[in-house]
């Protein structure tokens, strides 16, 4: 029987999900922007606000969906999984309550502490901004300052890195957040591990390193992620034996404590001198990280979804022994003052062996237009990160004007810096 799958979301992550599924099922998609890559792969596409849970459940019913995959956290936070499940359409994505591991950072830390999940930094939660400022004054060391709710990865300020203590307090006083989390600043190298979770089990995918800072050399403001790489094995070059496994122990503890969780569980880790600590959890695939992971997944992703839905054991995952490098092209001015509504061009013929993923662009009759977020990504694969990086760069000749790219992602210079940084910390 051919399964009918509804995909929710219109970014690069969802284009990667669409490509992993399109050959194996009848695929329908819905998103707020008309992503040309997804539209071409899908049998049908509806424009809808990704947070309109009732409308999405109705689309799922109308197209006769057997299951749904939810990409963005905004949809999870809006209860789209709950609405789909209520409509009898299995959603691969947690219900609103379970998605709080991502959507509420205060809950996330308290959950880690109460469930004894390893890797939790020292933290405190404040509803009173002046009390938070006093804590900053009294704390012996640097802190990360985080609004408790969703901010697309852009609301966090790290004292001693991006801001001074005085700037952090001014930020808190200006921003008007209801609740903030202050936590110990973790120092090290970040990495992501995503796992498929259902029926109390999880299956992990290889580690990926994202690049949050807007500019080359890790300068500038935080973004949703400018690009990412993975190696041919499960770990990354700056990791030592045991680091990846320590991250899996964290995910295992979360899944044990949340038996009803279903969907992707994404662990963002800081590899510190003492091993991996948790920066955050996300309740969905990473964007860009999905574009590193899904192209090398050799196990059928549809089989994972149907096993999850049917209450079966999830299949063991096989991955190609290939490294990947993903580089995003973003609108000029992104993230602080993105040039949205600008017409851009992508020369698909020039992408070559690399993979092209469209992201937050809108396809109109007369061409492709930017939104306020990342426009498209190119992914190279190869035997080594260097080979994958070279392929990604060749593919980027497809990019026209009006976009910016961090060309340093995946280069040997940047990798060497990461490895040296970790070696220094561990001395
Ligand atoms: P988040 O939205 O929690 O992913 O935070 C965004 C970024 O802020 C992370 O990717 C880190 O680079 C940084 N960050 C968050 N929490 C901490 C922390 N406790 N120590 C150091 N950096 C952090
Ligand atoms: N790459 C970071 C995220 O998806 O949140």
Describe the structure.
Helix content is 30%, strand content 27%. Among the domains are: 98 residues, Rossmann fold; 63 residues, Dna Ligase, domain 1. The strands form six sheets. Strands 12, 15, 18, 20, 23 and 24 form a six-stranded antiparallel sheet that branches. The chain has a five-stranded parallel sheet with strand order 3-2-1-4-5, sandwiched between helices. It is built from 14 helices and 24 strands. Helix 3 packs across helix 5. The mean pLDDT is 96. It is α+β, with helices and mostly antiparallel strands and 427 residues long. 50% of the residues are buried. The structure holds adenosine monophosphate and glycine. Glycine (GLY) binds next to loops.
């Amino acid at each position: 029987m051919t399964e009918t799958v509804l995909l929710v979301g219109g970014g690069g992550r969802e284009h990667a999900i669409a490509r992993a599924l399109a050959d194996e099922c009848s695929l329908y998609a819905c998103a707020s922007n008309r992503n040309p890559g997804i539209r071409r792969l899908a049998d049908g596409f509806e424009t809808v606000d990704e947070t309109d849970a009732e409308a999405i459940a109705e689309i799922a019913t109308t197209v006769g969906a057997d299951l749904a995959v939810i990409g963005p956290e905004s949809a999870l936070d809006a209860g789209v999984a709950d609405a789909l499940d209520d409509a009898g359409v299995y959603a691969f994505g947690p219900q609103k309550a379970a998605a709080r591991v991502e959507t509420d950072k205060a809950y996330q830390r308290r959950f880690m502490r109460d469930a004894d999940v390893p890797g939790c930094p020292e933290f405190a939660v404040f509803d009173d901004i002046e009390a938070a400022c006093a804590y900053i004054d009294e704390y012996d060391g640097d802190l990360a300052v985080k609004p408790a709710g969703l901010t697309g990865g852009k609301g966090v300020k790290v004292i001693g890195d991006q801001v001074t203590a005085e700037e952090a307090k001014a930020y808190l006083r200006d921003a008007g957040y209801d609740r903030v989390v202050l936590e110990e600043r973790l120092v090290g190298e970040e990495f992501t591990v995503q796992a498929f979770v259902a029926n109390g089990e999880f299956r992990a995918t290889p580690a990926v390193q994202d690049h949050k800072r807007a500019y080359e050399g890790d300068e500038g403001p935080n973004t949703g992620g400018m690009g990412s790489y993975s190696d041919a094995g499960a770990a990354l070059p700056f990791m030592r034996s045991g680091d990846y496994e320590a991250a899996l122990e964290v995910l295992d503890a979360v899944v044990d404590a949340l038996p009803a969780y279903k969907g992707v569980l994404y662990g963002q880790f800081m590899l510190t001198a003492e091993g991996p600590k948790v920066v955050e959890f996300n309740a969905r695939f990473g964007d860009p990280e999905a574009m590193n992971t899904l192209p090398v997944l050799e196990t059928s992703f549809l089989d994972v979804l149907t096993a999850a839905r049917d209450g079966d054991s999830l299949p063991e995952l096989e991955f190609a022994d290939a490294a990947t490098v993903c580089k995003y092209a973003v609108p000029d001015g992104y993230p602080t003052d993105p040039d949205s509504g600008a017409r851009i061009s992508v020369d698909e013929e020039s992408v070559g062996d690399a993979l092209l993923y469209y992201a937050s662009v809108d396809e109109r009759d007369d061409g492709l237009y930017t939104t306020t977020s990342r426009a498209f990504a190119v992914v190279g694969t190869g035997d080594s990160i260097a080979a994958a990086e070279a392929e990604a760069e060749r593919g980027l000749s497809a990019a026209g004007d009006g976009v910016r790219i961090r060309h340093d992602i995946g280069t040997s210079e940047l990798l060497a810096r990461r490895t040296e940084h970790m070696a220094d910390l561990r001395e």
